[in-house]
Amino acid sequence: MWQTILTTVFMYDYIIVGQGICGTFLSWNLVKEGKKVLVIDESQPFSSTKVASGVINPVTGRQVVTTWMADDLLPFVLKECHDIGSDIGVMVIFQKNIQSFPPSLQMRQMYDKKIDENNFIQPVPEVTLTKYQQYFNFMYGCIQIDPCYFIDLHTLLKGWRQQLKDKDALLEERFDSSKLTINASSVVYENHTAEKLIFCNGINAYSEPYWSRLPYVMNKGQALVVDIPDLPQDVIYKFGAMTFVPWYDNLWWVGSSYENDFENSLPSEGFRKNTETALKNVLKLPFTICDHIAGIRPATVERRPFVGLHPQKPSIGIFDGMGTKGCSLAPYFAHQLTQHLLHGTPINAEGDVSRFAKVLAR
Predict the structure, then answer these.
(1) Fewer beta carbons within 10 angstroms: which end of the chain, N or C?
(2) CA 269 from centroid of its chain's CA atoms
(3) Which CATH class is domain 94-151+217-300?
(4) Are 309 and 338 spatial neighbours (Cβ–Cβ below 8 Å)?
């Protein structure tokens, strides 16, 4: 007697690989538009998003310049984070201005020069400086960067992940490209079929042959999780390359390194020792190091993201390469990519992956 084995085929509009900040905002945007999505994501405690600081800082570099598109990004990200927070029932974004302590006289002079030129940079009153002398050792005063924001990434990712589970829209497993079949107008992953599949899985995206030729670089970020009970958590403190970010459970995220030359993704003893020494030099308060975290993030050589569909394989796309600016870029470009997928509206040319059409055609 013959036995017929029936395989259930699950139909979706979009399959998204990865639930970091890119996959979270993209899937949320598509669900808002009434689309049926499946997110494939293996829970990883040390993905690049989960070890990121969550800071949105509109000023960058030794030349103290405004970051790319800051005037457009900040109000947009604030609204999007309030909206997704409302959907998952928690606040996920908070204004936390940066108090930047210049590490040298030259840097102080650069800040002073920019006060009249950059609307984000403001002097700090003497009374505030006096207060900070209780907490820190510093020589060249302090400058405030306003507004800056902190996204509680742990709460955001956990909250949206639960929403995906409730919608039966999450496949908790490592993505296996051998299970993927790409057709002209659809994709099939095992028994899951969709119109398109979008890679939002960080460094793993570039192991796929479709994206391996993109001009990306890997960099490693590290931070210490520190308990500093007597340090007020109303702002972010910055001392050169070292930043104190109020984190979850009343702890502090202290980092970060930006390493292009590294052997592995593990926390390094050298970073821990150097950062601990810097903490002792800067802080007047007692502190305890609770954890040491590290992650590898992909960035583009030109410091612009990869967003859009493959020029030769339009049933797959990519949303990646945010580098250290994921918290500000991901919400904005998730919206742009969603509108492009649904309505054909253009993606910002500087972020559209089609700018590498010739590279991807090889």
Answers:
(1) N
(2) 25
(3) alpha beta
(4) no
DSSP element (H, E) containing 295: strand 288-300
Other beta carbons within 10 Å of 162:
13
| 236-287 pLDDT per residue, tens | 999 998 999 999 889 999 997 678 788 888 899 999 999 999 999 999 999 9
The CA R_g of the chain, rounded to the nearest whole Å, is 22
Using the 8-state DSSP alphabet, how is residue 122 labeled?
E
**Structure tokens given for 276:** 């601990």
Q: What are the sequence ranges of the domains in the chain?
A: 10-50+154-214+302-360, 94-151+217-300
Give the angle 159-297-149 at the CA atoms, nearest 5°.
55
Q: Are 80 and 331 in contact (CB under 8 A)?
A: yes
* HSE-up (13 A, CA, CB side) for residue 114: 22
Give yes or no for residue 335 having a pLDDT over 50: yes
**What fold is seen in the domain 10-50+154-214+302-360?**
FAD/NAD(P)-binding domain (3.50.50)
